[in-house]
Specification:
single chain; Rossmann fold; 2 domains
Length: 327
């Protein structure tokens, strides 16, 4: 179906009619598409009492499928282009096991849009609302499903409200941070190496910023860290020369990021903090605001990588291996 036809209530009706009670949720993809699904994995494991979730790269899912994968499983498959070989294989693996298999792609002619799956075809342009992108579509489905399976669940209205509100919050924050991103790029566009950190539901955003925005799109060497792990080894390399980007969340894990920030202020010199507390996130229910840091930080990574591109002159779409050579 096209995302314009998507309705979470009707979609969950189909899940329950076909597969009954869901016990396990699997979120499966590669690269940037996998990153889009992490916060939903985190959401299920923190908020649901009836389901558990796993976040698995596509090929790993194919080669080592979970023993629990069956007709009481809900599998989300995401492939932006819709033809990533191992992701299509993963979708077929889920289907064969009897799982309710949801596929996301922006290409209606792709393999992931095949009618044998429960496909949702989204658009990917600047004007696309957060509610119509894979991250928030997945939130909508899971929020509805938890609400039905767990009468005591308390975040139902807050999550629905946040999915709608986060779009304007993010657009305003991007405008606010534009000059900050330009300044960072001006100083560090030719950095030999940098670290990116985040925590909680946003951990995969540091992963994505590193492997997609910088390594893939700008050929910049970098590493990613969970802020909670910084003090368990990585902080030993901190000095006046190493460069850090810290994405500081609001919500339950904020104290983890603030501890890192305090240390960087004392022992580092070259660091950038993208602070969600400066972005208007107080408009979202504090009980579920954690899950809206990730879409905010994703758009911030787009802002920063574009600013770096404008300094390096290295087009974001240029590749030397991906889609160019046999691998």
């Amino acid at each position: 179906m096209n995302v314009t036809e998507f309705d979470a209530v009707k979609f969950v009706d189909k899940i329950q009619m076909k597969n009954g009670r869901i016990k396990d949720v699997y979120l499966v993809a590669c690269g940037g598409s996998l990153i889009d699904l992490y916060s939903s994995f985190y959401f299920v494991n923190r908020e649901s009492t009836s389901m558990t979730a796993e976040w698995i790269p596509s090929k790993e899912f194919v080669l080592t499928p979970p023993k629990r994968l069956d007709s009481h499983s809900l599998v989300f498959i995401c492939s932006h282009g819709g033809n990533t070989k191992e992701t299509v294989e993963a979708a077929d693996t889920a289907l064969k096991a009897g799982a309710f298999t949801v596929t996301y792609t922006h290409d209606a002619a792709s393999k992931c849009a095949d009618e044998k799956y429960h496909s949702i075809i989204y658009t990917w342009v600047d004007e696309t609302l957060q509610k119509d992108k894979p991250m928030c579509i997945t939130y909508s489905i899971l929020n509805e499903l938890i609400h039905r399976q767990e009468p005591e669940y308390e975040l139902y209205e807050g999550m629905k409200d946040g999915i709608i509100k986060c779009d304007q919050i993010i657009r305003s924050a991007v405008k606010k941070f534009q000059n900050k991103a330009w300044n960072f790029a001006e100083h560090y566009y030719n950095a030999p190496f940098l670290y990116i950190m985040s925590s909680g539901a946003s951990y995969a955003q540091s992963y994505g910023f590193a492997i997609c925005s910088l390594q893939e799109m700008q050929w910049i060497d970098c590493g990613y860290l969970n802020s909670a792990e910084y003090f368990h080894g990585p902080f030993e390399v901190t000095d006046k020369d190493h460069i850090y980007i810290l994405m500081a969340s609001v919500g339950k894990t904020r104290e983890i990021d603030l501890r890192v920030w305090k240390f960087l202020e004392k022992y580092a010199e070259k660091y950038e903090v993208i602070d969600a507390a400066d972005c208007g996130m107080e408009a979202i229910d504090s009980r579920c605001v954690d899950y809206f840091n990730p879409p905010l930080f994703y758009e911030m990574s787009v802002l920063y990588r574009t600013a770096i591109q404008n300094k390096t002159g290295h087009p974001l779409d240029m590749r030397r291996y991906m889609g160019v050579v046999e691998y």
